[in-house]
Design a protein that fits this description.
By secondary structure, the protein is an all-alpha fold. It contains 21 helices and no strands.
């Protein structure tokens, strides 16, 4: 095949033309909306029951912290069992957990425990789903664009889901809103069961006995790629974590807070759509490391005390820089052995969520010490330096495309 043909992007239309991917895509939309609605409803329910802002906020934090447990202890599940079975069982477990939350009289301890259970299951589901995309779409450009579409759905669900959750809670009690989440998980399970083909487990016996996760992390190239996914994301969440006090400092009120929360996801969706639709695989790889080094630099603008409009522009620009993930996806799927792809994606998902939770926590501590603007600008400086170091190391370990 000629170089120009290889350079042409496959296009999102070709990905959506695959029937099995459409089933995975629709299931992802339903489960994402359900998760966001459940987070809002559970937070309100806990606050109604306790009157404690701390416990209400803890329901969100518990969505991040147990990811590390699920991603490390349960990562082998993604490869040891048929992917469709893992996905359907995860959805059914999540539906059962939320159904118990919706039962009147369920105590605070049980509610928070079930929230932890959802977060433990989530990385296994996310990793298995991403790995099965390589079975459905192959390991080339279609796979990268499929992952991109699922990330775009996740970012868009943040924009739609929080608004939808607020509207639902205006007309429904929190426990009734939780029943909608149960329905979305059950619908997702049905779509995956009926819309995807059964495939055998990915792992071979020698992988099960030899410790596939250790094998993954022993590879320097894979470790660096994981860090290139995790570290920028850890610093990128700082403005979102501090959006409320920053909006208050600007005197922007609730409308300003809403705009600040939306700017980064909008920029991310725009960047991914452009890179996926307009750039070919080779171009995405060429821009990946430069974008990793540049994506956090707009945060330095917070040191100049920008207006609301300029702050939104800075966040949009930073979000668009996350288009580097498409190039990283291409390298990651090339570096990971096929029989370990499920647990690799599970570890990737678990580390991403865990370090974003760490980033939010550190952002709060930094803002207490030096103020919101200095904390965001500092995240830009420190994050960019870390990213440049990782990018340099990744370039030295680059492997030729097969």
């Amino acid at each position: 095949m000629s170089a120009p043909a290889l350079e042409r992007p496959a296009g999102y239309g070709r990905v959506l033309a695959v029937p099995e991917f459409r089933a995975v895509f629709a299931a992802h939309v339903l489960s994402m909306l359900g998760v966001i609605v459940s987070e809002i409803a559970l937070s309100v329910l806990v606050y109604d029951l306790t009157g404690s802002p701390l416990l209400s906020a803890l329901t969100f934090a518990l969505g991040f912290l147990p990811y590390l447990v699920g991603g490390t202890l349960l990562a082998p599940v993604a490869d040891r069992f048929p992917a469709r079975r893992v996905l359907v069982v995860c959805d059914l477990v999540c539906a059962a957990c939320v159904a118990v939350m919706a039962v009147p009289g369920t105590g605070i301890g049980v509610l928070l425990g079930l929230r932890c259970a959802l977060a433990v299951v989530s990385p296994v589901f996310a990793g298995t789903r991403m790995a099965t995309l390589s079975d459905i779409l192959g390991g080339g450009d279609l796979f990268v664009l499929g992952r991109s579409l699922l990330r775009i759905v996740a970012q868009s669900a943040l924009l739609v889901g929080y608004g939808l959750g607020g509207l639902l809670l205006a007309v429904l009690a929190p426990r009734h809103a939780l029943l909608i989440t149960v329905a979305t998980f059950l619908a997702s399970a049905a779509l995956l069961r009926l819309g995807t083909r059964r495939r055998p487990a990915r792992a071979r016996a020698r992988v099960r006995e030899g410790g596939g996760t250790r094998q993954l992390l022993a590879d320097r190239r894979i470790r660096l790629l994981l860090l290139l996914f995790w570290i920028p994301a850890m610093f990128a969440v700082v403005p979102e974590a501090l959006a409320a006090p920053y909006a208050d400092a600007l005197g922007a009120g609730s409308p300003g807070l809403g705009l600040l929360m939306c700017a980064l996801p909008v920029g991310t969706v725009a960047g991914e759509l452009y890179a996926g639709a307009r750039l070919g695989p080779a171009a995405r790889e060429r821009i990946a490391l430069p974008l990793v080094c540049l994506t956090l630099l707009p945060y330095l603008g917070y040191a100049l005390h920008p207006s609301l409009a300029l702050s939104l522009l800075l966040l949009l620009t930073a979000g668009a820089g996350s288009a580097y993930t498409l190039g990283l996806d291409q390298w990651f799927v090339r570096a990971v052995p096929e029989e370990l792809r499920g647990r690799a994606m599970t570890v990737l998902s678990a580390g991403l969520m865990t370090l974003q939770g760490v980033g939010m926590t550190l952002a709060g501590l930094a803002a207490e010490a030096v103020g919101v603007r200095a904390a965001v600008a500092g995240a830009g400086v420190v994050g960019a330096l870390c990213c440049c170091g990782l990018a340099a190391a990744a370039r030295r370990t680059a492997r030729p495309a097969s």
